[in-house]
Write a structure and sequence with these properties.
Layout: E1 5-11, E2 16-22, E3 28-32, E4 37-39, E5 44-46, H1 48-59, E6 63-68, H2 80-87, E7 90-94, H3 97-107, E8 123-125, E9 130-133, E10 136-142, E11 151-155, E12 158-160, H4 182-193, E13 200-202, E14 218-220, H5 221-227, H6 237-248, H7 257-264
Parallel strand pairs: 3-6, 6-7, 7-8, 12-13
Antiparallel strand pairs: 1-2, 2-3, 4-5, 9-10, 10-11, 11-12, 13-14
Helix pairs in contact: 4-6
The chain binds fe (ii) ion.
Residues 71, 73-75, 146, 163 line the site of fe (ii) ion (FE2).
């Protein structure tokens, strides 16, 4: 089994890991789950996080073949358009993005200019779809639950799990966003945990955990099955759903959910400028 070279980048304000995944036998790579920095109070974007990835790509003379998202993130804005403009590469996300676009297109009353067919992306992946990064083979697991469009990308001996599993001592992703489903998440997690035990699992987020004061981004299937506090071997679907539902009821909305979903449903592009030439993001009052 090929072992891709994986470099991680951490955005502490949103607790997000982005990755550059490289074919060990060529200069081909993919970028996963990039971050566009956003100061919500000022309404100002910044490309500091994206520039760290660009610097890595240039330093190693890499050829970006893919810019991938595991899902429509609700806690950070994607830098995919900025990275695409500077580095090239095809963009990809789950085919069920259309469901997410429909829900949030309505929630934000987007105009007819907003296509809800996923056409903002070059590739819309379904369960079992395959792709290549140089000589590396990747395949897609549809892993809904956190959102209907969530994917896990399995690339050689590595899997990028998005918001399904977190580190074993933190547990699993929430399922209370529009289209979320705790029962679906349990089933999705079983798919991930059925991968070979030594599969390297790369997290999309980490929030530390009680008794741990460093951020971690990597674990294995075997470690999750032995120790994940929410879904270790032996936890039933009903027990998981009860725990997840109770816990979700206590969670606050992510700070950047309102700007994030408006931008990420468009593949990371801002809404069109209004007739004064200015771009605005909306806040739906008493809606989410
Ligand atoms: Fe998420």
């Amino acid at each position: 089994m090929t072992s891709p070279l994986v470099t991680h980048f951490f955005d502490e304000p949103t607790n997000t890991f982005s990755y550059v995944v490289q074919d060990p036998d060529s200069k081909a790579c993919a970028i996963l789950d990039s971050v566009l920095d956003f100061d919500y109070a000022a309404g100002r974007t910044d490309v500091r996080s994206a520039e760290e990835i660009i610097a890595h790509v240039r330093e190693h003379d890499l050829d970006v073949e893919w810019i991938l998202e595991t899902h429509v993130h609700a806690d950070h804005l994607s830098a995919a358009p900025y990275l695409h403009e500077r580095l090239g590469g095809k963009t990809g996300i789950g085919a069920n993005i259309t469901i997410v676009q429909d829900v949030f297109g309505k929630a934000f009353n987007a105009g007819t200019e907003f296509a809800r067919d996923g056409s903002q992306f070059d590739a819309l992946f379904k369960e079992g779809d395959t792709f290549t990064i140089g000589g590396l083979e990747g395949h897609v697991l549809h892993t809904p639950g956190h959102t209907p469009a969530c994917l896990t990308y399995v690339i050689g001996d590595a899997a990028f799990v998005g918001d399904t599993l977190f580190m074993p001592d933190f547990g699993t992703a929430r399922c209370d966003f529009p289209g979320g489903d705790a029962r679906a998440l349990y089933q999705s997690i079983q798919k991930v945990l059925a991968l070979p035990p030594d599969t390297r699992l790369f997290m999309c987020h980490d929030y530390k955990a009680p008794q741990r004061d460093v951020f971690k981004h990597e674990t294995t299937v075997a470690e999750q099955r032995a120790a994940n506090i929410h879904v270790h071997d032996g936890v039933s679907e009903d027990d998981f759903v009860r725990m997840r539902t109770e816990r979700d009821a206590t969670l606050a909305m992510p700070k950047l959910i309102i700007p994030s979903v408006q931008v990420n449903m468009r593949g990371g592009d801002m809404p069109p400028a209004e007739d004064n030439g200015q771009v605005y993001l909306k806040v739906p009052v008493n809606k989410l």
